[in-house]
Write a structure and sequence with these properties.
single chain, alpha/beta
Length: 183
């Protein structure tokens, strides 16, 4: 099914999405990669506040290339999501509703997605220049010293993603393989 969804994404909307849905996100999402996730996790362990509210937000696992003249961002392709698996359950438990990356997730992340009524999207790897066209604004909001791994607030319009793991635990990577094997 094709869906148009506004971000941030509330739990009700997240629970309506199903593995295999094509989604076009419009609104505000955030970027964070390995180093930013590690820093946020360490802040949580120390009882410190995070640089952004997790509730209902979406984090895109991406570090952009430099922006060309007149563009808000350079190439903006997804990075491998499993590198954030150590940190994702804690952020989901704080209300994070969506994650965008590429590749499989651990059982612990899948359990946290179901427990929290969240969703995992994938963006097409290797299509960073195309994806950047859906990003209308980009602003570093935390950890500027991390360079491309700083946390950014993005304003997106019709940003194309696919639901891979939905709030019921359905996993497109698993169901698609079973369907393929039937052929």
């Amino acid at each position: 099914m094709e869906r148009h969804v506004t971000a941030p994404i509330n739990k009700k909307t997240a629970k309506e999405l199903r593995a295999g849905d094509y989604v076009y996100l419009t609104g505000t999402i955030y970027t964070a990669r390995d180093a930013a996730h590690k820093r946020m996790y360490e802040a949580l362990e120390k009882g410190e506040a995070l640089p952004l509210e997790m509730k209902d937000n979406v984090i895109y696992y991406m570090g952009p290339s430099p922006a060309k003249e007149g563009r808000p961002i350079g190439s903006a392709g997804p990075t491998t999501a499993s590198r954030m698996d150590k940190y994702a359950p804690a952020l989901l438990d704080l209300g994070l509703t969506g994650m965008i990356g590429k590749g499989k997730r651990s059982d612990e992340v899948k359990e946290a997605i179901v427990r929290n009524g969240a969703v995992y999207f994938v963006a097409v790897g290797g299509a960073g220049a195309l994806l950047a066209g859906s990003i209308k604004a980009s602003e570093v909001i935390a950890y500027d010293d991390l360079g491309t791994e700083a946390i950014r607030r993005l304003e997106v319009e019709n940003f194309p993603v696919t639901v891979v793991i939905d709030s019921t635990g359905q996993n497109l990577y698993e169901t698609a393989i079973r369907e393929y094997c039937k052929l």
